[in-house]
Structure formats: structure tokens, C-alpha cells
Amino acid sequence: MAGERKRGEIAAVLLFLGPSTLGILIFYIVPFIWMIFYSFFDSPINGKFAGFGNYVELINSGAYRQAVVNTITFTGISVPLIIVLSLILSLLLNERMHFRQELRTSFIVPLVVPVASVILFFELLFDTRGIINGMLSIVDIAPVDWMNSSWAMAVVIIIYIWKNIGYNIVLFLAGLQGIPKEYYEAASLDGAGKVAMFTHITLIYLMPTIFFTIIISIINSFKVFREVYLLAGDYPYQGIYMLQHYMNNMFRRLNYHKLVTAAILMAVFIYIMIFVLFRIQKRINNAIGE
Amino acid sequence: MNRIQGTLPNALLIVLAFFMILPLLMSATNSFMSDGELGENYDSRDAEQQTEEVKKGFNSMKLIPDSFTLKQYYQVLIAKHKFLRMFWNSVFIVLPIVAGQVIISSMAAFAFAKLRFRGRDTLFFIYIVLMLMPFQVTLVPNYLTLDRLGLIDSYLSLVFPGVFSAFGVFLLRQFMMFIPNECIEAAKVDGCSLVHIFFKIILPMSKGGIASLAILSFIDNWNMVEQPLIFLKDANKYPLSIYLSRVNGGELGIAFAAGIIYMLPMLFMFLYGENYLVEGISHSAIKR
């Protein structure tokens, strides 16, 4: 009887999980394992073992380096910025105020708007003869070539924040709602001020949410290629040439070695990053006893 | 004193919120302007062809049209076939992905949330890692398999990797974890099979989660740019997102109107399901 039931459970697992796991194996895992082998050989036909040769070659390539540096620069600036901004906005939105619901909605709306729909607005805004330069000319500031100077990175950061801040606000608001009101009441009875309550209650109990939001923001920051591509096409100003531009070029040239090696390096990097961040998150969770 | 403290951030938030929706607002109002009016506002866009005198001018931002016209929408919806074809391309790509993803993910999520089997946690960990991998990593294995299967340049090349998404499984599992185990145990005692339990208990109780996943997946895939650029060779098959980035300066009016029509399905869905969207995002947080 028990054995029969057990067999029934195994059949159920295969039935329900099978399609998904099979698909994931075929489209993600199996080719990825093949890629790992492939990355250590110098050509698919002769198959001579090359050790880390492909990796060295990739790292020595100028275009790849440029793309990596730009991507890291973008992530390094935009993620702290969006975290701080969205945290401040969420703390404000968590208070009672007029039009609270409408305000929250307007911060989330950019999330659902396809970038392609409003890209024209941003083009007109940041054109050399665009709206912003027009406003600057009123106060006698010379026009800036936004998309073809080091300002291009700033433009991309603005669009990234505009697009993604809603996601973080939703996460933070949910996190803030999860902090029991009694903590604040008890602290206020002990005579704690607003600042003390923020640093000793809000910030501490929000830490798990903050960490998850950092991870999601980093992951989303790698998707910014979409905005850059729609704005500046295949060959943007070199200051905003991102990793995905490089990958697209390698796809077009069918340079499998560079593609495979670059994808594996990035996968290793992301894996280490999330491993470390989740470890820290776990420590914090244990420390605050959740 | 407290009143003033509350009013200042409130006013600041209202100003910020206005800037958040300004891109939508301006695209919407500009889509009702005639070519002539748009030409006057943005005549400096093709600067090379302009005389020195005009070159000095800047684009001006205008929110309210002088004269209201539906001509751009007529152009987009009736006169030009290209736009509508691209629109349907997007629909044909996105609908199968969302439908397939919901079916496959809800089944797998049930297994992860409510069935016990060896290796479950390890397998789920792999799903999480996969979910966090960016396109720069996942597009390469996708491409290798699609190429081997001869699917490159067909819509299936976009549909398959989308259907088998780790995110869908993860999100629905988060929702299904909240279904009490007692419900399932009670049904088992009554002699219900697991298939029966899935259809009669799990699915009805996961309606909110399924709606959340459908909305999030719709938004994500409607906005798709990376995959079609790599997996499709024939530009006629491109979804609207890529087409819209290639409209040139001479077609400003059409581009505004096309952009608005393109975002309308998303906006309707948002108005109808904002709470599902918020629920979905909140549940996507990995807390453990």
C-alpha cells in the first residue's frame, strides 16, 4: 500500500515537473554544459585542448573590455542611486498623504509602458537641438551633445531609473508594511526619536528587502541594453557600448568562441555575486531573528 | 508644524510623479497633432537639411495640440499596412508565450510547493540561479539549441525559451506555498488523485498568482528586444518594439500614434490589474 502510494507520488512528480524541467534542460542547462567544454578547446573540428586560451584571448580584446567596463560603471552608479531614491520615495509614500494611491500608480506606470512607445520622447528630449538644450539656451548654456559625449551614460541612467524605480518602490512598500506597528509604539514609549526609530527599527527590519532589491536592481541593470539600443541603435557612442552590444556583434559574426566564453565568464560572475549577497542576507535574517 | 512637514514632501512627490508620467502624456497629446504642427515644433530634428537660420532654433515641447486631429491614427491603422502587421507579429509572439508559461509553470510550481521528492531543493536552487541570469548569459545556450533544432528565424525561437521560464515557476511556487497543506491532506484522505487536487484545489486557489504571472510575463514579452534581434533574421517578422525604434524623422506623427497604440494593451491591463501586478512583484522577493 505504502509502496504503491510512493510510486504514485513519483509518477505525479514526473507528470507535473517533467515538462518544465525537460524544457529547461534542453534550452538552458544541456547547452550550457556543452559550452563549458567547448570554451576549453580551440576549434570544434580539431578539438585541441586550449586550456584557458579562449578566456585570455577574450579578456585581451579591446571591445570586450570596453563593454565590461561600461557595464560595470553603469551598474556601479545606477544601482546605489536607484536604491537610495526608491527607498526615500517609499518612506515618503508609506506616510499618510494626499493622492497616495495615485502617486504610487504614477511611479509604477513606467514599468508597464513599453520603452519603444516613449523612446521618441527621450530622443526629442536629449537631441542636440532637443528640448533640454533649448531650455539651457535660455540661461545661455551652450548645447550639449547628450548622446555622443560622456553625458550619454547619465542619459541612460536617467532612463533606467525612470523605468525601474516602480519595481523597487513596490518591494520596499511591501517590506515596510511587514514591519509590525508594535515595534514603533514600544520605541515611542521609550522616548525614541524619529531618527532613532528609522535606524534601529525600519532600516534593520527592512534589510532583507533591501538586499533582495539590490540583487534585482543589479539584474535589471544588465537589461538596460534595451533602452540604449532603442535610443542609439547597434553602434552607440562608445561610452555606452554595453556587454549586450558586444554579444550582438559576436552573434552577427557567428564568433561562437567569444560568445560562449563571454557568457560563461558572466555566469560565473553573477553566480559568485548572488552567492555572496544571499549569504549576507541570511546572516542578517539570523541576526534579526526572522 | 506637523502640517507643513507633511505638505512639503507631498508637493515634491506630486512634482516627481508628474515627471514620471510626462513621457506618456507628451507622446499621447503629440499623437493628435498634424504633421504641420509637429514639423513646427520639431523642425530642428533633421538639422543637416536646414538653413543656418532654422538651425539656431531648438525643439520646443508642446503638450496641448493647436488643432486636434486623428489623421495620424488613420495613417497607422488604415493607410499603412506595415504597422498593423508588426502589431500582429507582437501578438502572435506574446500570446503563446504567456499561455504556455502559465500552464508549464503552474504544474512545476505545484510539484515544488506541495510534493516531496529527492533533490527537490537542489533542483529549485538551479531554477533560482537560472532566473537571476541575465540575457547575456541565457541567449547563448538558447541560440545553440534553437540552431540545432532548426528553429532560428521562426517565431518558435522566441516562444520556446519564453515558455520554459524559471521565473514563472518561482513566482507561482511563492503563491502556492500559502495554500495550507491540510487542504491537500484532507483531499487525499477522501481519495482524490494528485491530478484532481491540482485542478480542483491548487489552480482555483492560485488564481491571484496566475493573474500576476500573466501580467508580468505579458509586460516583459511585449517589450521584447534582445531575442528577436538575434533569433530572427527576417526583419518582416520583427515585433513592433524594434520597428518603432526605426521610424525616421519624417514620420514623427505616425511614430507617436504607433507608440500609443502599442502601449494601450499594456495600459488597459495595468488599469484592470494593478493590484495583481503589485502582488506579483511583492511575491517575487526571495526572503530566505
Question: How would you portray this structure in words?
Answer:
The complex is a heterodimer of chains A (290) and B (288). With 290 residues, chain A is an all-alpha fold. Chain A has a single domain (62-287), classed as MetI-like (MetI-like fold, Orthogonal Bundle), CATH 1.10.3720.10. Chain A is built from twelve helices and no strands. Chain A has helices at 2-38, 53-60, 62-93, 100-112, 115-126, 131-138, 151-177, 181-189, 194-221, 225-232, 243-252, 256-287. In chain A, α1 packs across α12 (256-287). The longest helix of chain A is centred in the N-terminal third of the chain and has 37 residues, at 2-38. The mean pLDDT of chain A is 85. Chain B is mainly alpha-helical and 288 residues long. Chain B starts with a helix and ends in a 5-residue tail after the last helix. Chain B folds into two domains: 2-69, no CATH class; 75-283, MetI-like (MetI-like fold), CATH 1.10.3720.10. The longest helix of chain B has 34 residues, at 81-114. Classes of the chains: A mainly alpha (290), B mainly alpha (288). At the A-B interface, α1, α3, α4, α5 and α6 of A face α1, α5, α6, α7 and α8 of B.
Biggest sheet features of chain B: none
Q: What is the level-2 CATH architecture name of the largest domain in chain B?
A: Orthogonal Bundle
User: What is the percent of helical residues of chain A?
Assistant: over 70%
Radius of gyration of chain A, CA atoms, in whole angstroms: 24 Å
Could you list the spans of chain B in which at least 5 consecutive residues all have pLDDT below 50?
Answer: 44-55
Number of domains of chain A: 1
Assigned CATH architecture of chain A: Orthogonal Bundle
The helix/strand order of chain B is: HHHHHHHHHHHHHHH
- The N- and C-terminal alpha carbons of chain B lie at a distance of 42 Å
Question: Which segments of chain A are poorly predicted (pLDDT under 50) over 5 or more consecutive residues?
Answer: none
How many beta-strand runs of chain A?
0
What is the mean pLDDT of chain A?
A: 85
Elements of chain A, N to C (H/E): HHHHHHHHHHHH
CATH topology of the largest domain in chain B: MetI-like fold
CATH topology of chain A, which one?
MetI-like fold
> Helical content of chain B, roughly?
over 70%
The strand count of chain B comes to 0
CATH homologous superfamily of chain A?
MetI-like
Class computed from helices, strands and strand pairing of chain A: mainly alpha
